[in-house]
UniProtKB/TrEMBL annotation:
MF-aspect GO terms: catalytic activity; FAD binding
Sequence intervals crossing the membrane: none
Keyword Flavoprotein part of the UniProt annotation: yes
Source organism: Paractinoplanes rishiriensis
Protein name: Glycolate oxidase
All copies of domain FAD-binding PCMH-type, residue ranges: 17-189
Alphabetized SUPFAM superfamilies for the sequence: FAD-binding/transporter-associated domain-like, FAD-linked oxidases, C-terminal domain
Organism lineage string: Bacteria, Bacillati, Actinomycetota, Actinomycetes, Micromonosporales
């Protein structure tokens, strides 16, 4: 009897990805069990699922035999507070991490898992100060499509030995293997978080960026016309710097963020896009007339599009501003008619990487750019 026989169950009505139903679902509880499962599933097409908060992102898989559910791969393996690092299993929800006076500075949807956050390279408002998953990840354990366990990086921040496979797996949408553990760099938990909310144009974000206030996030929302800034630090220091920001923007200091902070601007089941432009292009993009929310400090924003024409219009505007746009999610009946990824530089190289890591193209087939 194989690990597939031991762990797999028939898929239920909810076990589908992008409208494509699975045949089987299996939930390994360790890296070794996951490796045995993947090795036993040779010949089957596989999609990895965590909490399912981003399971509809990307294109539907061309085929789906097995969903590997990571939610039993949960918990903190190690927390070295003195070294500011933690080792976390991939199925651990971000919201469940309790690291005392330290934090893993990744913002994600409610319930999002560590592995899903890395696989989709998602980030939230605080990416301005702390960076993205790709920046905070310093080590990774992955089960490759052939069942072999691969480790990269280590448990020190300055680790330059060998090729950094963590960067490769981050944002790969599960097309190169199953992430089982991640090693992250941590930051001290700030004593205080203070928000400044202002009815101000996106262009005013430049005032905050050039002032000596070290904002953790600068967010803009096109629907409310608000600009909001997060300032962190000691209680007195954060309050003083927030006062400077409030004076610059003509805004008010608040203890809590605005309701749109970090929220998707699209309705459930709608078309959601990720837009990236140079900072100088943010005001122009926000004025596009769509529902847009995101970082006026990094130029990474999120938008709702009404239809395929709306997708094309936002992509054209991003391109004209020197950026790019992708469709994160769309209704099943519309996804086939949308150009999800747009122009993708380096696509030939990406295909060669896929061929090397997953020669049979079993993992998340067709979900990534160029049909990878």
């Amino acid at each position: 009897m194989t690990a597939l026989d031991d762990l797999a169950r028939p898929a239920g009505d909810d076990d589908a990805v992008g409208g494509v139903p699975a045949r089987l679902v299996a939930a390994p509880a360790s890296t070794e069990e996951a490796a045995a499962l993947v090795a036993a599933a040779r010949g089957l097409t596989v999609v990895v699922r965590g909490a399912g908060t981003k399971i509809g992102w990307g294109r539907p898989p061309r085929a789906l035999d097995l969903i590997v559910d990571t939610r039993r791969l949960a918990g903190v393996v190690e927390h070295a507070a003195g070294d500011l690092i933690t080792v976390v299993r991939a199925g651990t929800p971000l919201g469940d991490l309790d690291l005392g006076h330290q934090l893993l500075a990744l913002d994600g949807p409610a319930g999002a898992t560590v592995g899903g956050t890395v696989a989709a390279n998602t980030s939230g408002p605080r990416r301005l100060h702390y960076g993205t998953a790709r920046d905070l990840l310093i080590g990774i354990t992955v089960v490759r499509p052939d069942g072999r366990i691969t480790k990269s990086g280590g448990k020190v921040v300055k680790n330059v030995a060998g090729y950094d496979l963590g960067k490769l797996y981050t944002g790969s949408y599960g097309t190169l293997g199953l992430i089982t553990e991640c090693v992250f760099r941590l930051h001290p938990q700030p004593q205080s978080q203070v928000y400044v909310r202002a009815q101000a144009p996106a262009a005013d974000a430049a005032k905050v960026r050039t002032a000596r206030v070290a904002p953790a996030a600068i967010e803009v929302d096109s629907r409310s016309g608000e600009l909001a800034v997060l300032v962190e630090g000691t209680a007195d220091g954060a309050r003083d710097r927030a006062g400077t920001v409030a004076e610059l923007l003509g805004g008010d200091i608040a203890e809590t963020p605005p309701p749109w902070w970090g929220a998707d601007p699209w309705e459930p089941g709608g078309i959601g896009m990720k837009l990236s432009v140079p900072l100088s292009g943010v005001p122009d993009l926000v004025a596009a007339g769509a529902a847009i929310r995101g970082s006026a400090g990094t130029g990474v924003l999120y938008a709702a599009a009404a239809d395929a024409a709306g997708v094309d219009a936002l992509r054209e505007r991003c391109t004209r501003l020197g950026g790019h746009a992708i469709v994160l999610t769309a209704p099943e009946h519309l996804i086939d008619g949308l150009d999800v990824w747009g122009p993708v530089p380096g696509l030939d190289l990406m295909r060669r990487v896929k061929d090397q890591f997953d020669p049979e193209h079993r993992f998340a087939p067709g979900r990534f750019a160029g049909g990878i």
